[in-house]
Amino acid sequence: MVVRVMGEDPRVLLIRDPYRKWGLPKGHLEGEEGPEEAALREVREETGLQRLLLGPDLGEIDWVFRLDGRLIHKFCRFYLMGSADGTPRPEVSEGITECRWMSTGEALRMVAYANAREILRRAVARLHPTVTGDGPIWREE
What we know:
Shape: globular
Radius of gyration: 15 Å
Largest sheet: 6 strands, mixed
CATH architecture: Alpha-Beta Complex
Order of helices and strands: EEEHEEEHH
């Protein structure tokens, strides 16, 4: 989950997925990479943002869906990330049609999936109540 300070307010980056629903960037492990490496790579691929600061682990969600007639059980670990600059660009080849910075309240209303909304709530709870351009974005536990 990517956060950027705009003015004094944190903004959350949401993506519109192939189902035209708003959600969080996510993906899967490749090769020998760990979850942190995969999270950074996937966010870079899906949003085009390159300079990312990896923050706290926000936990894991799971869900079940069908793909080509097979039942798939997927697990996904999320991390809070900071992005100070760069213009997000959706990865159209993966069906992502839009990337948009939203206020935390708007993001909570727009996220289509309940389990992703819970991750977003966890992230918002970790953000500093007063954010400045040169201060930390999140609280460490």
